[in-house]
Amino acid sequence: MSTSNRGKVYLVGAGPGDVGLVTLRARECIENADVIIYDHLANPETLGWARDDAEIIYVGKTPGESRTNQNEINVLLLEKARQGKQVVRLKGGDPFVFGRGAEEAQAIADAGIPFEIVPGITSSIAGPAYAGIPITHRAHNSHVTFFTGHEDPAKAESAIDYAALAKLGGTQVMLMGVERLGSITSEMLKHGVRGELPVALVRWATTGQQETLTGTLRDIAQKAVANGFAAPAVAVFGEVVGLRDQLNWYEKRPLLGKRIVVTRTRKQASVLSSKLRSLGADVIELPTIRIEPPSDLREFAQLVQDSHIYDWIVFTSANGVEAFFNIFFKLYDDAREIGAVRIAAIGPATAQRVKDFHLHVDLQPKEFVAEDVVREFKKQGSIENLKVLVVRAEKARDVLLKGLSALGAIVDEGFAYRNVPETRDPTGARKQLATLGADLITFTSSSTVENFLALALPWPKGMLVASIGPITSQTARDKGLKVAVEAKRHDIDGLVEAIRDFFAGKAATKS
Questions:
Q1: What is the secondary structure of 245-261 as a DSSP string?
Q2: Contact 288, 455 (CB under 8 A)
Q3: What burial letters (b/e) apply to 20-58, b meaning 16+ CB within 10 Å?
Q4: Are residues 454 and 487 in the same domain?
Q5: Does the pLDDT at position 321 exceed 50?
Q6: Are residues 414 and 318 in the same domain?
Q7: Which whole number is the average pLDDT over 341-365?
Q8: pLDDT value of position 227
Q9: How far apart are CA 493 and CA 155, in angstroms?
Q10: 61 pLDDT more than 80
């Protein structure tokens, strides 16, 4: 993005809802923005990519809701850009597909302010695709028509040419008209479209809450009312709807419709979130902890500088590995400066982070807990008088320190980072949880349990607890929580597997 003092507006398409469908350019714009002005249908999780000092302004509105009008939005865009800000106008789908983006671009152009258009994947294509409906197929159609069911309320009559739609045939995709579906289908029938034409409605397309309702032109409006099928939804009219039975892929995922809360740090959340989303879950990222430098960074840096004098370094987390080597390579430009020290790591993620720095892990316990590290050292033979540096978080359990000291080792602690409560909520996750509720909340450490409860948020009805392992589970129980799911393998993959098995078991019981 521009680094000059001159303001600029980026009209950015946020895609249809799945954060995996946001373009690389859109993410780059969000990461560099001074101001982000976003809509109701832009996935708020994308705001997690924004700088901590970015100004974030919500101007969305749901059908029937009175909020910021278009003129006010235009004024806001111009005002922020004239202050020399890099402004991202974040819009659901594509900014130029039935989204008032063209009107905003005209206002910006008329004001002489530089702007850029960043196209996004539109729900008119992504929605049907995620429902297993290809909008084109050689055997069924040779053209596609897009129209909106939500027109300018100031217009005296509809601009939709129903006679032309009836004559055109092919596949027709309607955006933003589900609340007027009865009158729209009635007009199509009046103009000669056959009543048995297949129709599909796709609601909250590409998200973990996606639902699809199928019917015919004659009965789809009645079905929508009977099923409480409300906006936002995309409607597809045409023979291609019949291919859904064969091509439906997304809605067969095992966690579809399950809303799961992820409480890891914002930086770490994406690994767990993406694995859950790949199984169809609707994820709310609500970080409860933030990683910050230790209280005495100078003391830790001194231990890193002297790391070559130790016989062993024990890393208890991937965060500790990262903090250690960030300092190490500022002090030294050669990994061999670490000397002949051997390395132990708790858990595969920690071990992998060590390997990322091209160093070998000499000891990795089968169980991902401090107690098992002590057991593994016992198997190694005597460690009496060996110098061991334990790299860990401040205020972590001292089981490892006591265990190694009891074996005769000379142990130093290196506090690499602090887990502090996350107080920021730029994505509105807490409001989402309060409004939408959740099926499950995941805890990946004792800190996530304690910090989530410290937020004193209302506990959604029916929300169950999933824990990464016995220590985290015990903390949850000590705080009065009942643990429904505990990973047998105490890492992220183990947690995801346990969650999948849990819901599969519940589904099997129901059937």
A1: HHH--GGGSTTTT-EEE
A2: yes
A3: ebbbeebbebbebbbbbbbbbbbbbbbbbbbeeebebeb
A4: yes
A5: yes
A6: yes
A7: 92
A8: 95
A9: 55
A10: no
Catalytic entry in 39, 94, 282, 439: 39
1 is catalytic: no
DSSP states of 474-507 as a string?
Answer: HHHHHTTPPEEEE-SSSSHHHHHHHHHHHHHHHH
Indicate the pTM of the whole model: 0.80
**Could you tell me the pLDDT band of residue 3, with boundaries at 50, 70 and 90?**
very low
Distance CA 207, CA 43 (A): 10
415/482 same-domain check: no
Catalytic residue among 34, 176, 282, 439: 176
Residue 1 belongs to some domain of the structure: no
Residue-wise pLDDT tens digits, 256-297 = 999 999 998 877 788 899 999 999 999 999 999 888 999 999
476 neighbors 288 (Cβ within 8 angstroms): no
Lowest mean pLDDT across 13-27, 258-272, 305-319, 405-419: 258-272
Question: Which residue from 189, 134, 196, 139 is spatially nearest to 166, judged by alpha carbons?
Answer: 189
Tokens of 296: 């005495």
Residue 227 and residue 202 share a domain: yes
CA–CA dist 70, 74 (Å, integer): 6
Q: Describe the strand order of the beta sheet including 483-486 as a list of residue ranges.
A: 282-285, 259-262, 440-443, 464-467, 483-486
CATH number at residue 272: 3.40.50.10090
Active site residue 61: yes
Q: Which of 42, 16, 60, 58 is nearest to 203 (CA)?
A: 16
Range(s) of the domain holding residue 242: 125-252
Q: What is the SS3 assignment for 307?
A: helix
The yes-or-no answer on residue 479 being catalytic is no
- 101-110 and 70-82 are packed helices; what angle lies between their axes, rounded to 10 degrees? 40
Q: Which two tokens stand for residue 272?
A: 């767990």
